[in-house]
């Protein structure tokens, strides 16, 4: 189990965290046993709390935190979802047509819909969250790329805040999956309720399939 989690943590390293190696060489190192051992030794020296985890603790965490084994693309997509949901209160009060179209284009239709429809507060969102979201949007000055990046950064804070509420080591592990990460801890900087990420990570129950009567 220890080896399994160390391997997952090593695979979860963002390439930017291995700046000493060019990307092609890094991928080659990950494909060979010798290369992985060298990467693991280097990682252990720089992040011992992440790469020498307690076996029992990480075995428990992996059940609650499926992102520990997510590929980079899935982690990035989830981070963008969190950023969009966090901006939801500000997005929903936007009524001017050109700004609505800008937000929809900048966030992407799927994320814009998530921002419109998600209700993690189960009622009116705090006014402070709405105001901070509006301020973030205004700072981007109708620059779609800037807004996408700002929403992604907001998603990082929300995700890292969730991880840090469980244990600082989880936040340290998650931070390594990003090219850059905000200063830890992030829980106090989060806009979303603490229940948001666990609800999104919870497995969707599968409806039993009714058997057709025999003819």
Walk me through this protein's architecture.
The protein is an all-alpha fold. 64% of the residues lie in helices and 0% in strands. It has 13 helices and no strands. It has helices at residues 2-11, 23-31, 33-46, 48-51, 55-64, 72-86, 88-92, 97-107, 109-117, 127-139, 144-166, 168-175, 196-201. Helix 6 (72-86) crosses helix 9, helix 6 crosses helix 11 (144-166) and helix 11 (144-166) packs antiparallel against helix 12 (168-175).
Explain briefly what this protein structure is.
The protein is mainly alpha-helical and 215 residues long. The chain has helices at 2-11, 23-31, 33-46, 48-51, 55-64, 72-86, 88-92, 97-107, 109-117, 127-139, 144-166, 168-175, 196-201.
Order of helices and strands: HHHHHHHHHHHHH
Averaging pLDDT over every residue, what do you get?
85
Structural Rg: 20 Å
- What's the N-to-C terminus distance? 49 Å
The low-confidence runs, each spanning 5 or more residues with pLDDT under 50, are none
Shape: globular
> Percent of residues in beta strands?
under 5%
Largest β sheet strand count, sense and barrel closure? none
Oligomer: single chain
Number-wise, the strands total 0
Q: How many domains, as an integer?
A: 2
Secondary-structure-based class equals mainly alpha
Helix content: 55-70%
Count of helix runs:
13
């Amino acid at each position: 189990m220890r080896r399994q989690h160390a391997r997952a943590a090593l695979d979860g390293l963002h390439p930017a965290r291995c700046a000493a190696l060019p990307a092609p060489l890094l991928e080659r190192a990950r494909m060979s046993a010798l290369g992985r051992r060298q990467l693991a030794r280097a990682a252990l020296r720089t992040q011992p709390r992440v790469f020498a985890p307690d076996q029992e603790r990480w075995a428990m965490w992996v059940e609650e935190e499926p992102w520990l084994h997510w590929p980079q693309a899935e982690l990035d997509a989830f981070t963008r979802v969190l950023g969009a949901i966090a901006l939801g209160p500000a997005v929903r009060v936007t009524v001017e047509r050109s700004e609505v179209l800008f937000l929809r284009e900048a966030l992407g239709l799927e994320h814009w819909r998530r921002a419109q429809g998600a209700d993690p507060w189960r009622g009116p969102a705090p006014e402070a969250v709405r105001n901070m979201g509006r301020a973030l949007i205004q700072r981007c000055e109708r620059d779609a790329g800037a807004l996408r990046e700002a929403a992604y950064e907001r998603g990082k804070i929300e995700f890292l805040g969730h991880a840090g509420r469980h244990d600082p080591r989880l936040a340290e592990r998650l931070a390594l999956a990003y090219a850059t990460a905000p200063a830890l801890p992030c829980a106090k900087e989060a806009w979303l309720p603490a229940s948001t990420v666990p609800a999104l990570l919870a497995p969707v129950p599968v409806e039993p399939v009714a058997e057709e009567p025999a003819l």
